[in-house]
Every structure is written in C-alpha cells, then in structure tokens.
Specification:
24 helices, globular
C-alpha cells in the first residue's frame, strides 16, 4: 500500500470511529449548535472581508489584507484553543500496531492543514477579492493574495499545534506566542508610522509577480512547520506512551494537610482535591492556565485602558472570578471516574465529595480577589463590585456548573495530555455550560440597563449569597439525581477509561 492510500485509509478509519462512537447520539445537539456557531463566524468573516475589501479598493491597495491578516490570526490562534485538541485521539491506537508512527503523525498533520476550519477563512478572503476585482485589480494578483492568505491560515494551524504542545509541558512557553505576535503588532505599527504601507504597495504595483514569490516563500514556511511539528509531536507522544520519567529526586517532605483533619471525611476529600492538583499533570495544567489568564486579564485591566467601558469591566470582572470554575467544573466528577467504584462503596460518599469540591472552589475565589486588588486601587473596580461577582460566582455560577455532575460520565485521564481520550459532550451538557457562562452576565446586563451600578451589585450579591447559603440543599438534590443515574454513569466511566 502506498503512502497516499494509507493516508486515505487512516482518514476513513477516523470518520468511522466517530460514527461508531457511543457518544454520537449524545453529540447530535452539540453538533447542531456547533454548525450554528460556524454559520455566525462565517457571516462575521464575510462582513469583515467586505469592509476590508472596500477600504482596499478606495486606497487602490489590494494587498492590504496580507498586512491585516497576521493581526486577525491572533484571534484565530486563541479560538483554536476552544475548538481543537492536539493530537487527535486516533493517533494513539496506531502507535501500538506494526505501522510507522511517522506515517500516522503525517496523516494527522495533513488533516489539520486541510481541515474545514482553515477553509472557513475563505469567507473573509473571497468577498475581499471580489470587491477588489470589481475595482479593477489584476485577476492573477488577487488570486495570489487569496492563495497567500489561505497558506498563512494553514501555517497558523501548525503554529498553534506546536505552541499548544509546548505549553502543555510548561506555561513559560506562553512567552513564545506573546513575543511573536507582539513583534507582528510592533512591525505593523512601525510600518504605519513610517509610510511603510505605501512603499510596499508601490513595490507590488511595479512587481505584480511578487505576490506569487511570496506564495512560494509561505509554502516553504508551511513545509518547515510541518516537519518541525512532525519531530516535536512524535517525540512527545512516544515519551508519553512509554511513560518515560526523569529520575525522581529523593522526597524529603510529603504534605499531609493535617489542618483539614478537623473537617472529618469532608476534610479528607479536600486533601484529595489539593493532592490531585499537585500530583496529576492534566489537572495541574488546568489550574495554572486559569491562574495565568487571571493574572494577564488583571494586568491588562489595571495598566491599560483596553477594557475601560462599563460593560467590558463587568464582563471581565465576572470572568476573572468564574474562569477557574468554568475550566474545572465542566469536567466535574470526570477525574473521579478513574476510581468511582471505591467512592460508591459507602452511603453518601459522593455527597461529601461534592461538598468538599464546592468548599474548595469557593475558597479558591480568594485568589482572583487578591490578584485583582491592583485594579481596585487603580479605580477600575470597586470593592462592592468585587464582592458582588465573588458571591454571584459562588452562588449562581457554581449552582449551574455543578449540575454537570449528574450527566458527566466519561473518565478524564489524570496524566495523559496529548493522547488522552476525547470526551464528547451531550447537547444537554453543552447547554448547561453555556447557561453557566452567559446567564449571570445576561442578568447583570438587564439590571444595569434599569438600575444604577450600586443597586445592581447589591442585587447580585444578595442573589449569590442566597444560593451560596442554600448549597446543602441543591448539592443534595444533585446527589440524589446522580444516584438515580448511578448504573448508567458507572457504565460510561468504565467504558471511557
């Protein structure tokens, strides 16, 4: 079998795997919502392409999109964190077969390059090209611009894959995309201030073949990115599968968290939460990523005027408090799926575990509260606003997100990052997540439209306080509903280990 036929076979097997997945029926609603979201993105890109196309036509500068696209690709880079995993789940099984792992990885990388997500950017490029063609631009130059733009998106997909993998090893690798995109923005600003755009436009006008030279250069960059990813991904995946570990240092001290013993069995589960973060890579990565985002957003709000609008400040203040819970509670009870049978051996064990998780997540809200104090000193936030969003998160947001404990039934691997199983969510789970993310902000927006900010924050604080105090009632309700689905959830946890 030649390599092309093997690529086609691997791709067909991946599609068959999706069709035969037991989560297919659960995921139908989620897929419909995903298609609706993709339609909105496509419409937005068409809108942007039309605006940029009109600007370029007025300035007689058809190549303008190539200068703006690197800035737009920053958004594309961030969006991929929500939409794409690395690498795909089908890589792992083939590594155990008598087949070269390089071929499987090549198939995966080519799948990423030719994914429909990349071609969605044609919704921006084609309207832009059409408007400039009507304005009298050269056909071959416009075609070259579209080709260059599409190749830049493909390069960005490989860049995302490389950065995502490196960040999984250390959060310090976030400095790499910050430096690269910061340099791109800085270069754009320098060109604007020194009439570099006009010089570049003149060069392309007198050398129309230059756009195709640029296309060839970008193709070479894409090939290099593919080769680099092939080497990096192959090394990391083989290391993870073989469980290679550095020589462990002598353990001098083991944290016992004895101060939690006063809380009885709930204290033991609090110890479990803390030790899970300390010992398990996958869980620890979620914690550090959330902490990094909180620090970054707090610094942007405090030291820049980027989010100085009333609604933007409320939006980011809420998400600084809620982001950790949104990151971890979407998979609530999924890590425990690795040992769920032991938790079922005693009556109300699960209820005590849920209470411990709730107390832990409420206590962790003190972290963003402390981190955002500089924003209070700078006058961006008020103490009443911070208190309101803290209570709204501990009450309303957590009340909604903990409902997922009833329906989550796929085990989350504790250590595997690159080759972990893909936990497909049902439509109901996705709806709960979206409600948890946006309902509090919707309520805040409605209150701000009819009340003053102080009255809005008082109402929010009271609502959050009531739900926080009532947590024993709604946690018990969640527990009882979990017990009604006990055998169904156990089967799901066993099947997904």
């Amino acid at each position: 079998m030649n390599r092309i036929a093997l690529y086609r076979l691997l791709r067909r097997n991946a599609k068959l795997s999706e069709k035969r997945s037991p989560a297919l029926e659960q995921g139908k609603v989620a897929k419909v919502m995903m298609y609706i979201g993709a339609a909105f993105v496509a419409a937005y890109l068409i809108f942007l392409g039309s605006i940029f196309g009109r600007l370029a036509a007025e300035e007689d500068m058809a190549e303008m999109i190539l200068l703006l696209l690197p800035l737009l690709l920053i958004i594309d880079f961030l969006m991929r964190f929500m939409a794409q995993q690395t690498p795909m789940v089908f890589v792992k099984p083939y590594l155990l077969m008598p087949m070269r792992s390089q071929v499987v990885l090549e198939s995966y990388l080519l799948t990423m390059v030719t994914s429909s997500y990349n071609f969605l950017w044609l919704c921006l490029l084609l309207p832009y090209a059409y408007i400039n063609l009507l304005a009298g631009a050269n056909f071959w130059a416009i075609l070259g611009i579209v080709v260059c733009g599409l190749i830049m998106v493909m390069i960005n997909s490989q860049w995302y894959l490389l950065v995502r993998t490196l960040i999984g090893r250390s959060l310090l690798w976030w400095l790499l995309p910050i430096a690269v995109y910061g340099a791109a923005i800085g270069l754009f600003v320098i060109m604007i201030e020194n009439d570099g755009l006009g010089i570049l436009s003149d060069w392309f006008y007198f050398h129309p073949w230059g756009i195709w030279v640029l296309a060839l250069l970008l193709t070479g960059v894409l090939a290099l990115a593919l080769l680099l990813n092939l080497k990096v991904q192959g090394g990391f995946i083989r290391k993870e599968l073989s469980k290679e570990q550095k020589k462990a240092k002598a353990i001098k001290h083991v944290s016992q968290f004895t101060f939690l013993e006063r809380f009885g069995q709930a204290g033991e589960y609090l110890k479990l939460e803390l030790k899970s973060i300390m010992r398990n890579k996958a869980i620890r990565a979620r914690v550090f990523s959330s902490l990094f985002l909180i620090v970054m957003l707090s610094a942007l709000i405090t030291y820049t005027d980027m989010y100085d609008g009333k609604y933007l400040l409320n939006f980011w203040c809420y998400y600084c408090f809620a982001i950790y819970g949104m990151t971890t509670l979407t998979k609530v009870m999924c890590p425990e799926g690795n040992y769920i049978d032991l938790l079922m051996t005693q009556r109300e064990n699960i209820l005590l575990l849920l209470r411990a998780k709730y107390y832990f997540h409420v206590a962790i809200l003190l972290v963003p509260l402390i981190i955002m104090l500089p924003a209070v000193i700078a006058g961006k936030f008020t103490l009443l606003m911070m208190l309101a969003y803290l209570l709204l998160t501990s009450g309303l947001s957590y009340f909604i997100m903990f409902q997922l404990a009833v329906y989550n039934k796929q085990t989350l691997p504790l250590d595997a990052k690159l080759t972990g199983k893909n936990n497909v969510e049902s439509g109901l789970q996705l709806i709960i997540e979206l409600v948890g993310m946006f309902l509090p902000l919707l309520l805040v927006g409605m209150l701000l439209a009819v009340c003053s900010e102080e009255v809005t924050y008082i109402i929010m604080a009271l609502l959050g306080l009531v739900l926080t105090i009532a947590h024993p009632l709604w946690l018990r309700n969640i527990y009882l509903r979990m017990m009604q689905r006990k055998y169904q959830n156990l089967e799901g946890f066993h099947a997904s280990r």
